[in-house]
Amino acid sequence: MKNIRYFKQIVFGASLFICLVITESCKKSFLDVPLQNKQPATLFFQNASDAGKAVNAMYANLREWTNIAFAPIAIESIGSDDAEKGSSPNDASFFNNFDNFTATAGEGQILDFWRGQYQTINLANEVLDNVPGINMDGNLKARYVAEAKFIRAYAYFRLVRAFGDVPLRLTVPKNASEYNIPRSPKATVYTAIETDLNDAASVLPQSYAATDIGRATKGAALALHAKVAMYQKKWTDVLSLTNQVIGLGYSLFPNYEQLFRTNNKNNAESIFEIQCMLVPGNGDASNSQYSQVQGVRGVTGGGWGFNVPTQDLVNEFEANDPRLKGTVIFRGTTTPEGDAIPAVGDNPMYNMKSYVPFSEYVSGFNEGCQQDKIVLRYADVLLMNAEAANELGQPTQALASLELVRARARQGNANILPKVTTTDQAALRTAIYHERRVELAMEFDRYFDVIRQGRGATVFGSKGWKANKNEVWPIPQNEIDLSAGLLTQNPGY
Fold first, then answer.
1. What does the alpha-carbon distance between residue 92 and residue 70 come to, in Å, rounded to a whole number?
2. Is-contact 271 378, C-beta < 8 A?
3. Burial class (CB in 10 A: 0-12, 13-18, 19+), 173
């Protein structure tokens, strides 16, 4: 069967976003609109305008259902001790299979996550294969290529920490024989990720004018590289990369709860966030469901109530830590924005970080469609810096970076969250692990954080997590079948 590729175009605010479609369109996304002015890919990539549309397509795809909604919740959140299914007991019960580690290779969310990342990679590869040959401004061309390398690195990082060895595709297949490729060792994938991020950081600007805010920056490439290095325990690299980010002028947003609100998008703490918005008159173009699937259940302007915090997470917060109210919406309380949460409902608590005030709901649109998803922020960089410094035997720097995060959390109240003063490496490591948990809770980091720290059996064992199996999720059985067995399954599945 011949695959015909078309670009699907829709207006998003002041920008034009496109999606490259190969046999199936972008699923459950704001890109699901009738095709207009269909243009075969063979006639595309002719000029700078085409290049810009292709680059914007990558960013648009990050909001797509498989990249931001159910599949990431299943793969990156529910398995942790921070979150559980939520919603009503019988709604989307498959999430329980991720919570108790009984998910099999046939689970649809695993396939969705896999396909979502490779769709992103395909869009990046289209840019990388075609934009260099366009006659256009050289500086802009170089920046577009760097943006594509950052996006591709981000998608591969999500894949490699979820599945381990994965197929490494760095170009668009040119013929049928190139579609079916085996898994590459995760070390090889990590090397490719780091190469992309080095290339991107050398070209990307520190910041953009207002019309381009939200694109990948030098700081984003360095920060993501630091996280990639952290997962490989390359502590010298982590320290160097985070020190570079620290020197770029980011700062912690003064009010922890407010840094996640829609009126504070892309603030001084944000390093990279997935851009989402409500486009008046165009519900299809406002289809991010990140906030909707996690919103308060049973209220107008809320949502479906999935991925809710656990009591175990609540118990982790120190007494009077303001971040608790910036992380958890409790049933029967009133939010800082004045929304009364019903005292009776399916769940005792909800994710505050995905919350959009009910007053911002517009009938006919997904609840919270204007809520961005923060991927990288400065507090994470400081905590990576602290962890790397501690692992390298530099407790003074570790304590300094850790204290910056805790000082912001205090919000001027010297009677809470005392300074960490220990210089014992093991004790300081424990303190940093605690700080990562409470600072980054419900941001889709905790699950893989615990695994890369080597604590999976200790922390998740009571939920059914097993060593030498659950460090990764199973390879989708559908993909193994399509490969005629060339793709192999992870051990234990």
1. 10
2. yes
3. middle
Report field, pTM of the whole predicted structure over 0.85: yes
φ, ψ of residue 70 in degrees (nearest 5):
-60, -50
Task: Read off the amino acid at residue 416.
Answer: I
Q: How is residue 176 annotated by DSSP?
A: G
- How far is the C-alpha of 278 from the C-alpha of 365, rounded, in Å? 8
The SS3 call for residue 311 is helix
Mean pLDDT of the chain: 92
CA 228 – CA 196 distance, rounded (Å):
12
> Hey, what are 453's tokens?
């720290």
Rounded to 10 deg, the angle between the 378-391 and 425-439 helix axes is 170
Query: CA 444 to CA 113: how far, in whole Å?
Result: 14
Angle 225-434-84 from CA coordinates, rounded to 5°: 90
Residue 59: its H or E element: helix 48-61
Over residues 162-201, the pLDDT tens digits come to 999 999 999 999 988 899 999 999 999 999 999 999 999 9
35 vs 61: which has the higher pLDDT: 61
pLDDT value for 40: 65
